[in-house]
């Protein structure tokens, strides 16, 4: 047990308090497996001697670890490192990248889908907003800012993230990754079928006679945007004469960017007869743009949106949408995480539903392609 000790007395003059430093040193030994599960700790007097601090300081540190569930006391036998199954914190973290907003109704549904099953299972849910500029650092220093000992597991909700960072996280506690490709088989992920959604949109428009369509989305390097395009291109490769114009902007609510992107294809005689919006945020801007050009929806141009959400009053007609059951996808993530935390097998039907198929709801914003 000598490995559990180490001098901290030289840090007496520093903050945080000395007992907190001692607790962190012991905590790290437990995390790293230097002190194994079920192993008995030395007495407080022995630890104090080895670490160069007072017995009172060690006593306070041990109480902190007991409060966290890392250490268990047994009457007449001393204190032991708790078994992993005994040290649940009953708290789960949801890491949100700063490109994901609570105000976004799609994300709101997804977060609700994540939170409700976890709370029903007895967990508290903590949301942690990650700053993109920090999260992209190669050394993953942002992980150091999170006290992982407070959590039993993590849901990482990110359109983009460094795979290496999430792999590093998964070495320390159970992780489920949403909305992003998982490199290798080590990470458990839940993703919606954006390729299938793009394919459905293309099939629907082609069935109405549209041959040249545009796709507008934000973030060329975002996996979901790439997959929307891939799905529509998949249809185009299978059916000669169907063309997809990919318009990509940096921000979906930047009026000028959206206008400039649309100008590339909708100014001129060979304009597309249909537009697919890869996010519902685009719809009000797009409708205003077509109004300015004197183009009526769906008479002159058909419009397909993504996600069946409540639109603002300025959206004057019911939209045809690629529908994603965001709450259901979030629920799958929570179910998988609970299984991982409890080290229970995951049923095949859960694994098979990880990629949630997209559906298409046809309404009044799409119609037969206009004759030229």
Automatic annotation (TrEMBL):
InterPro entries registered for this protein in UniProt: LacI/GalR-like_sensor, Peripla_BP_I, Tscrpt_reg_HTH_GntR, WH-like_DNA-bd_sf, WH_DNA-bd_sf
GO molecular function: DNA-binding transcription factor activity; transcription cis-regulatory region binding
Pfam families: GntR (PF00392), Peripla_BP_3 (PF13377)
Keyword list, A-Z: DNA-binding, Transcription, Transcription regulation
UniProt entry tagged with the keyword Transcription regulation: yes
Domain of life from the UniProt record: Bacteria
All residue ranges annotated as the HTH gntR-type domain in the record: 16-84
UniProt-listed PANTHER family: ALANINE RACEMASE (PTHR30146:SF155), LACI-RELATED TRANSCRIPTIONAL REPRESSOR (PTHR30146)
Name of the protein described by the UniProt record: Arabinose metabolism transcriptional repressor
Lineage: Bacteria, Pseudomonadati, Planctomycetota, Phycisphaerae, Phycisphaerales
């Amino acid at each position: 047990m000598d490995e559990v000790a180490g001098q901290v007395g030289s840090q007496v003059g520093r903050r945080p308090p000395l007992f907190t430093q001692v607790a962190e040193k012991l905590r790290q030994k437990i995390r790293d497996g230097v002190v194994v599960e079920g192993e008995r700790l030395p007495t407080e007097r022995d630890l104090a001697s080895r670490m160069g601090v007072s017995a009172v300081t060690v006593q306070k540190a041990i109480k902190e670890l007991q409060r966290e569930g890392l250490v268990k006391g047994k009457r007449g036998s001393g204190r032991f490192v708790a078994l992993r199954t005994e040290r649940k914190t009953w708290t789960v973290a949801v890491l949100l990248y700063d490109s994901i907003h609570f105000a976004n109704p799609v994300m709101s549904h997804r977060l609700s889908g994540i939170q409700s099953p976890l709370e029903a299972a007895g967990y508290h849910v903590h949301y942690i907003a990650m700053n993109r500029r920090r999260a992209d650092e190669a050394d993953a220093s942002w992980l150091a800012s999170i006290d992982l000992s407070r959590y039993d597991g993590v849901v990482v909700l990110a359109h983009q993230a460094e795979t290496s960072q999430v792999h590093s996280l998964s070495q320390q506690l159970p992780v489920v990754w949403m909305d992003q490709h998982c490199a290798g088989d080590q990470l458990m992920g839940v993703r919606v079928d954006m390729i299938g959604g793009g394919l459905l949109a293309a099939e629907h428009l082609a069935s109405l006679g549209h041959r040249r369509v545009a796709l507008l989305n934000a973030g060329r390097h975002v996996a979901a945007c790439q997959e929307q395009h891939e799905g529509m291109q998949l249809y185009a490769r299978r059916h000669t004469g169907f063309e997809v114009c990919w318009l990509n902007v940096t921000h979906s609510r930047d009026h000028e960017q959206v206008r400039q992107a649309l100008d590339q294809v909708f100014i001129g005689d060979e304009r597309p007869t249909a537009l697919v919006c890869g996010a519902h945020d685009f719809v009000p801007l797009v409708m205003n743009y077509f109004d300015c050009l004197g183009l009526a929806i769906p008479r002159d141009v058909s419009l397909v949106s993504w996600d069946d959400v409540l639109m603002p009053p300025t959206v004057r007609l019911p939209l045809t949408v690629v529908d994603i059951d965001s709450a259901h996808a979030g629920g799958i993530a929570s179910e998988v995480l609970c299984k991982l935390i409890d080290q229970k097998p995951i049923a095949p039907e859960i694994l098979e539903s990880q990629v949630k198929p997209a559906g298409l709801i046809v309404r009044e914003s799409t119609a037969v392609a206009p004759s030229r």
